[in-house]
Amino acid sequence: MATVPVTDATFEAEVVNADIPVVVDFWAEWCGPCRQIGPALEELSAEYEGKVKIVKVNVDQDQAAAAQLGVRGIPALFLFKDGKVVSNKVGAAPKAALQAWISEAL
Asked: Residue 56 catalytic?
């Protein structure tokens, strides 16, 4: 399963009301570190299929969710469980670190 693009309009349905934990990646096209972690998130999305959903919100197109969560820098990752933020992380990290962060938060 690939990462899922989410907009402000679909954020509540895809993230808050999801039946499994969701990792939200706030990113932008022009952000180098965002592009750097993109492939790792795609791989993790496949590895966690059915257990964790990984979604991406482009902050240039959709700012409401990012503003509501107080995102100041990107990439910003938030892990939602039962509709609430249980962990967050800012900045790029290698795949192993991202995987450890997700596993630890679950």
From this structure: no
CA dist list (Å): 67 to 10, 41, 71: 16, 22, 6
Out of 6, 34, 71, 79, the active site residue is 34
For residue 27, the one-letter residue type is W
In this prediction the pTM is 0.96
Candidate list 24, 31, 57, 93, residue with the active-site label: 31
Q: Counting every residue, how long is the chain? A: 106
pLDDT single digits (tens) 40-85: 999 999 999 999 999 999 999 999 999 999 999 999 999 999 999 9
Is there a catalytic annotation at residue 34? yes
Examine the pLDDT at 33 and tell me if it is beyond 80: yes
